[in-house]
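User: Can you predict the 3D structure for this chain?
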Amino acid sequence: MKDDATPRLRRGRPRPLRALFARELRIGRRIGGAASLGVAFFLALVALTPFAVGPDLALLSRIAPAILWISALLATLIGLDRLFQSDHEDGSLDLMMASRAPLELIVLVKCAAHWLLTGLPLVLAAPVFAVMLGAPAGQLWSVALSLLVGTPALTLIGAIGAALTVSLRRGGLLLPVLILPFCAPALIFGVAAASAGSGLAPAPAAPPFLILGACTLLALVGAPVAAAAALRHMSE
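Assistant: Here is the predicted structure, written as structure tokens:
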């Protein structure tokens, strides 16, 4: 009996995390339409840029990776302040912290759901918006791939700021100030990786992609621990 029960217990351990992931997706779709809102904000930033820098198509195509990455960074911030705040307000966060599941894994699951609702639509929309800016055809996939590799790091870093401001009434105003400096490495190497497909960048494409991936892996390891520590400190 013990041998038969052990596999069932092992299979049952991830169920609370799967239920939390499904809950986050359901709430995100029901409350704010985060995917459509993020893409609309992304489009607005891209569409406004030609009015600021002028209609020079050669200039726009040259700076297209920077425009897309900055727009994606700002669009990622939408709804990030509510990552833990709504759970804090209704008491769900206390239940999560008291559950048997490690708080670091809970943070990671919430970040994964947020990225799926906000980051992935930006990745899918990026090639279309790159065409609007006159980016070369060879650059479209490098832009999308760089965002696919780098936007999870933005969400994970943002989770730290969301955890630090969870108990503040106007934490959404403080969140960008806290996290934008830490997003600079992902932004720098993301733009370098996205520019690799244009033929204008003399550097090879592999190093910025590898460094960008390292930034995401570092955030994947460190951000849940830091956010969990901030949430525990907030509850004391």
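The mean pLDDT is 83. The chain has eleven helices and no strands.
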